[in-house]
Amino acid sequence: MTHLSYIIPSFALAVLLPFFLALSAATRLSAAKKNLAALDGRRRRRNDT
Fold first, then answer.
1. What local confidence, expressed as pLDDT, does residue 29 receive?
2. DSSP codes joined into one string, 12-41
3. Buried b (16+ CB within 10 A) or exposed e, 19-46
């Protein structure tokens, strides 16, 4: 009996899960940078007056 039905999904999961987590982290970082830039712009406008 071959165990390929268990081995192939486990290897696929081992490759796809870190890729998904890295992609998720990159999108969250991008969104956080945009929010920080927006907040920084508000602070500069408030301090200029």
1. 97
2. HHHHHHHHHHHHHHHHHHHHHHHHHHHHHH
3. eeeeeeeeeeeeeeeeeeeeeeeeeeee
Q: Which helix (H) or strand (E) holds 7?
A: helix 4-48
Determine the Cα–Cα distance for residues 3 and 41; give it in Å rounded to an integer: 58
Question: What is the rounded distance in angstroms from the CA atom of residue 44 to the CA atom of residue 38?
Answer: 10
pTM, two decimals, is: 0.68
DSSP state of 2: -
pLDDT in tens, the chain (49 residues): 699 999 999 999 999 999 999 999 999 999 999 999 998 887 777 666 5
